[in-house]
Design a protein that fits this description.
Blueprint lengths: L3 H7 L1 H8 L2 E5 L5 H9 L5 E5 L24 H12 L4 E5 L8 H5 L5 E4 L4 H14 L3 E4 L11 E5 L7 H12 L7 E5 L18 H17 L4
Parallel strand pairs: 1-2, 1-4, 2-3, 4-5, 5-7
Antiparallel strand pairs: 6-7
Helix pairs in contact: 1-2, 3-8, 6-7
């Protein structure tokens, strides 16, 4: 049985709860691809993934969608194929879109049990946050994980309790300036970014973004089954 090990861990009743949930994930990069796959491997039967990018050879060191065979393909289509290979019964919607203030309502208006934001575009993150706060949707956001090498320094907190992370600081400032609450769940790192050899390019590795993605997935799943 495909999910027998998970059912043995959490019980049939909680697994049945997960099967009825509908989740959306923005971004299938180093963080989002791992979060999305962990969600797909947890019995969720309705999943939407949103990303506008194609797989690039530079993604191979950190993204599950990135393989030699997938270079140049749309990330959402690569992930959809991968997710259906994990669970053929999964109802997955792949949206090749860049989220913005202009389209966020159209994407989120159908309603979701959990919204996961793993993009790095500030305007897109703000659009997602504002919509979720306005409409009472459960949301967890990823902060920045480039130029970092210590996954053990990743943690979950509310946005107003984050420190060190420049992206989280920017989000705090922008949401506060328009009088939005800063009580959003955020996964971030307390590690100070190190200086990359070429400062024109963000440095990355296989283990920091992926750890953040798995922490996000664990928070979402445990919250949905009432164990968070």
């Amino acid at each position: 049985m495909r999910f027998n090990r998970l059912i043995n861990l959490i019980g049939q009743e909680k697994f049945d709860q997960l099967k009825r949930k509908n989740i959306i994930i923005f971004g299938l990069g180093g963080v989002g691809s791992f979060a999305a796959e962990a969600i797909a491997r947890s019995g969720i039967m309705k999943l939407t993934v949103v990303d506008y990018d194609k797989v690039d050879i530079t993604n191979i060191n950190r993204q599950l969608v990135a393989l030699e065979s997938t270079i140049g393909q749309l990330k959402v289509e690569v992930f959809k194929s991968r997710a259906l290979d994990i669970n053929p019964d999964l109802e997955i919607n792949a949206l090749n879109k860049k989220v913005s203030i202009d389209n966020v309502e159209g994407i989120l208006s159908s309603g979701y049990d959990y919204v996961i934001d793993c993009i790095d575009d500030v305007d897109g993150k703000l659009a997602i946050a504002k919509y979720c706060l306005d409409h009472g949707l459960k949301l967890i956001m990823s902060a920045g994980f480039a130029n970092k090498i210590h996954p053990e320094l990743i943690k979950i907190s509310k946005l107003n309790q984050t420190s060190v992370c420049p992206l989280a600081k920017t989000l705090r400032y922008k949401l506060k300036s328009i009088n939005y609450p800063l009580t959003i769940d955020v996964v971030y790192s307390e590690e100070k970014p190190i200086k990359a050899i070429d400062n024109r390019i963000l440095g990355s590795n296989s283990y920091v973004p992926s750890t953040a993605g798995l922490i996000i997935a664990s928070h979402v799943i445990n919250t949905l089954i009432g164990d968070e």
